[in-house]
Structure formats: structure tokens, C-alpha cells
Amino acid sequence: RRFETPPGKQAQVHWGHLGTLAMDSIAPQMWGFTFTLGYSRMTMAEAALNQATRSPFSAKENRSEPIPLGA
Asked: pTM of the prediction?
């Protein structure tokens, strides 16, 4: 059963390992991040080369469109 929330009140956040990216002589780990709004179910997904908290948020801040909180 789905848990209903008002707009802008709840989101689900998930991290996951996507695998290894083969580049020249290095093989960095790839991580996936999803952010799903509870009300509209709108989802943002990003890939990052590390698990630092600011990695996915920095990627979103560098975009021109804001995260919509009440769709």
C-alpha cells in the first residue's frame, strides 16, 4: 500500500553501486543516486564517482532547472 504525503514533505533517497568504469589504466567505481518525491513520484537520478554526500547534490546544483517540490 502506498503511503500518501502532501507536496514537499517527503522524498526517498537511494545509493547503489553501478559497477566499474574502465578508463585507460584506472577503473573507478560508479555509484548511482536516486531522489524520488513522495507526492508526485518525480525522480531525479545521477551517477557519481564517489559516495561523498555533495556529489549528487553538486550535479543537480549545476543544472539550470530546480528540483520541483510540489508537482
From this structure: 0.58
